[in-house]
Amino acid sequence: MREAGAALAVESRRFSEYGWMRGTSGNLSVVVNRDPLLLAVTASGVEKSELTEHDVVLIDETGRAADPADPRPPSAEAGLHSHIAARTGAGAVFHVHALDAVVAGHRWPEGVEFRDMEMLKGLGHRAHGTTIRIPVIPNHQDMRVEGECFDAEYLPATDLVPEVPAVIIANHGIHAWGADVAAARRHLEIAEWLLRFAVAIR
Ligand SMILES: CSC[C@@H](O)[C@@H](O)C(=O)COP(=O)(O)O
Ligand SMILES: [Zn+2]
Q1: Ligand 1 within 6 A of CB of 146
Q2: Is ipTM strictly over 0.85?
Q3: Does residue 27 surpass a pLDDT of 90?
Q4: Is the beta carbon of 189 within 6 A of some atom in ligand 1?
Q5: Helix or strand or coil: residue 32?
Q6: Among 12, 20, 27, which residue has the most ligand 1 atoms within 8 Å of its CB, making it the best to mutate?
Q7: Residue 95 alpha carbon, nearest atom of ligand 1
Q8: Which of 47, 51, 94, 141 has the greatest number of CB atoms lying within 10 Å of its CB?
């Protein structure tokens, strides 16, 4: 847990410096055990620019706290982290309140489409010839409902088409995920760049 906390503290500082985790906004998780699924997730209500290695809580596959000796509440949105990790096989899930992601979700509530962009390679897709869509799902306070909304939009990778490892939550923020912390960060940074571009040229 200490190692997971240290890794998430680095990411939290980085995203805070980008302005994507203002105040207590956003939450980050990393899978610490696959079967049964256990994740280290940021504790709820922590100032994200000041997150330390101690500010993570162990959760199970339902998003509930899994260490009875730890009284701190996990992120209020922990359930969506465990859901995404279970559904996608991701090793890390990052959620931030990046402004352009929220603006893009507001402008294109059916999802934000991209094609013929070099940066698509950073999401595992070809730069040319295919259209990819970052879905937008409604915002819910109940993470079980949010998980159902995720499932309704999520398209797993096939032999021919890689997945799109990001989703916008309407009027809220964006989640991105990846095989590990580095991949989740890369996907988040690339998705945010694409969304910023879409908003800027409109
Ligand atoms: C301004 S924080 C808004 C929160 O409700 C939530 O969306 C969030 O991202 C952080 O919640 P947390 O419970 O600290 O993980
Ligand atoms: Zn949030």
Answers
A1: no
A2: yes
A3: yes
A4: no
A5: strand
A6: 27
A7: 9
A8: 94
What DSSP letter does each residue of 126-195 carry, written as one string?
-SSS--EEE-EE---SSHHHHHHHHHHH-----SSS----EEEETTTEEEEEESSHHHHHHHHHHHHHHH
CATH tag for 2-201 (out of 3.40.50.920, 3.40.225.10, 3.30.565.10, 2.40.50.320): 3.40.225.10
In the Cβ-directed half-sphere of 10, how many Cα atoms lie within 13 Å?
Answer: 9
DSSP code of 110? T
Closest ligand 1 atom to 24 CA: 2
CB 18 within 8 A of CB 5: no
Strands 132-134 and 166-169: unpaired
Q: What is the DSSP letter of 73?
A: P
65 neighbors 73 (Cβ within 8 angstroms): yes
pLDDT tens for residues 46-74?
A: 999 999 999 999 999 999 999 999 999 99
- Give 96 Cα–ligand 1 centroid separation in angstroms: 9
> Which ligand 1 atom lies nearest to the CA of residue 41?
15
* pLDDT in the model for residue 9: 98
Using the structure block, give the residue that is written with the tokens 């998430």.
Answer: 8
Nearest residue by C-alpha to atom 4 in ligand 1 = 25
Q: Would you say 97 is a known binding-site residue?
A: yes
pTM greater than 0.90 (yes/no): yes
Q: How far is the CA of 45 from the centre of ligand 2 (A)?
A: 11
